[in-house]
Predict the structure.
Amino acid sequence: MRKIRLGVNIDHVATVRNARGGADPDPVRAALLAIEAGADSITLHLREDRRHIRDDDLQRLRKVLQAPINLEMAATPEMLEIALATRPHAVCLVPERRAEVTTEGGLDAAGQQSALQPFITRLTQAGIRVSLFIDPEEAQVRAAAQLGAAVVELHTGSYAAASGQAREAEWKRLHDAAGATARHGLECHAGHGLNFENVSQVAAIGQVAELNIGHFLVGEALFIGLTASIEEMRRQIATGAQIAVKRP
Ligand code: PXP
C-alpha cells in the first residue's frame, strides 16, 4: 500500500503564541503531539522577520524531537548559517517577501540558478536534504534537478484556491509537474492551502511522496483538537493515495 508521509507545519501555533507575547501555546509541545498523532516529520518556517517561529523554537525542537525536522527558509546568508549550525534533516528553500501574508509563489529556480547554487551546494555538502518550493512547471523542475536539489515541493496554493474547471486545470498542472519530477530523478513533495476537502486529489498523484500541511490543521485543532485533526488528515491522504488516477 502506498504511504504518503505527512509533515505537520507548526508555524501557526507560534502565531497564536506571539499574539500575546507569552510562552503559550508552545509550538514545540504541538510538534511532539503531532508526531504522537501520526505525523512523520515537523516543518517550520523561520522567517526573516520572525513573525511566528523564533530561533529559540528551532533550537528547542532540535533538542527534543527524534523525528525529522524540515526547515523552511529563504536563501540568505543568515539562514544558511542557522541551518548549518542546527543541521535539520531537510531544508526547503522558499521565496520570501516581508510584506506577504504567506509564501505567495514558488521559488524561481530557473531564473535564479546562480544565486541559489551556493546555498544548495553548501547545505547538501553538510548532509542536509535540500528541497525547492516551486510552482508546478516543468522548467522549474528541470532547473531544480540541474541545481542538484534532491526534492521539489510543488506549491499547491493555486489549486487549493481555485474551484470548478479552474481547479481541474490547476490539478492537471500539479499532475504534469509531478510526472516531470520522476523524469528528472527528484522526489516530489507538495503543500500549501491543503485541507480535508482538497487533499485527497493531491494524494492521488502517484509521484507525491510527502505533503506538508499547517494552517488548516492548526485551525481545525481549535474545534476538534490537534490529534483528531491530524488523524482525519491522514485518513483523507490515505483515501487519495489509493485512487489510481488515469486522467489525460
Ligand atoms: N510548504 C511550504 C513550503 C510552505 O511555505 C507552507 C506554508 O508555510 C506550507 C507547505 C504549508 O502551507 P499551509 O500552512 O497552507 O498548510
User: Anything to note?
Assistant: The chain has a mean pLDDT of 95. Residues 104 and 114 are 22 Å apart (CA to CA).
